[in-house]
Amino acid sequence: MSDGAPVSVMMAAPRLDTILQGMYPALAGDPGRFAVVGLATEWEDFKRKLEALRPEALLMQGEIAPSPDALVDVLKRFPGVAVVTLMPSSAAAEGVVRSAPCVRDVFVTQVPSWPEAAQRLYQAAVSERALRAQAAPPAFAQPAHPGRPPVPVGLRLFAFVSKKGGVGKSTLAASFAYALARRGISTLLLGFDRPDDIGVFFNLPPYPNQSIFFENPSLESLRAAVQKKDALDVLLCIPDDVAAEAVARRDPADRGSIRSLVMTAAMGGWAAVVMDLPPDLSSEWTLQPLLVANTVLLVAQPTLADANKILQAYRLLTGRLAAEHAIPRENIFIVLNMVTKDDNISPAAFYRMLQEVSGDSAPPVAAVVPFDPQVRAAENMGEIPLLKSDPFRKAVEGLVDLFYRGVAPSGGGERNRGLRILRR
Fold first, then answer.
1. Residue 232 pairs with which residues in a beta bridge?
2. Cβ distance 234 to 136 under 8 Å?
3. What is the pTM of this model?
4. CA 243 to CA 60: how far, in whole Å?
5. Average pLDDT over residues 99-119
6. What is the pLDDT of residue 191?
7. DSSP string for 282-302
8. Domains in the chain, start-ordered, CATH in brackets?
9. How much is the CA Rg of the chain, to the nearest whole Å?
10. Helix H or strand E segment including 3
11. Mean pLDDT within 57-79
């Protein structure tokens, strides 16, 4: 890494809007100096990502930690530099936070000046580089991620995407949707792959399915096609290949098109729609839902081949398809799945490869999901992995917290339907 390379930064705060509306603009608006490698809004998720991504610097709000002592315990083991902000109500913790060797400054304020904090972080990181260079070259990942901050408002349409099968995309999509529903967030899970593994995961019959909508397009027919898995609404893909190809040939503007199905679901009152897309990015069954989504999760395993496929998908979204969708670059994320301590490509190295090959930018890592054989065993037994594997559950719930932290289940068995503004 040269001294002029961007400083790799991880952001952490208990509220997503603090990150996206405060921290992110201060960092991502200056890609020559900063490279955002990850973000976290929940303490355990923060610790996992910190270990996996190995950023050079931390910009964080101290209230993400359960206590000042817990915060300092982690910061004392962090080899980089950190700038921490504290709310006035936490001012008494300033001294103990400053005691961590990595902490270069602490701002105690109700409304932080994030550009000022970012400037302090950059100065500290550059100074640290100079000191390290006297002994040995540092070894930090340096991905770049320029762009503008998104505002997390309205319905979220999540698209789980991969360019090959076998990476665990459908398992993650189904588990993420199930976790949202358990949180009390009204969620519809849409399957678009054939055969639809979601039905197998949840032990659902193949019918009813999307064919009901395609035969008579309306919100009523869509609702008639929905099945239930506990609190989760599930709409399985049309299983017949011949009928599916006929649907795929319909003009996207038609009432009975694939795009129309997604748009109808978007108007159905759910707070979240999660779409499990096929790995063929040239298929209408992938493209039409993808172009309606507003949040994309690129699923991969930490392999060289998957890094190449992630890069291709990202280039497609930010290049040729950019004029056809409304997905901000900042709403595209990587989910690294089936990660083990024995992998010879760490999450940080995986990210670094993306940046080095692209020469431009790569989406940040939203989740690092550890490999656990209990996940496969649960699926083979017709059980829900989220309820059987604690490491898997923690990673998936960390992903939920990234988007919906603070959205608690409502009382009386009612779910949070039709959220229009996500307030943290």
1. 229
2. no
3. 0.70
4. 51
5. 92
6. 97
7. TSHHHHHHHHH-SEEEEEE-S
8. 7-133 (3.40.50.2300), 156-413 (3.40.50.300)
9. 22
10. none
11. 94
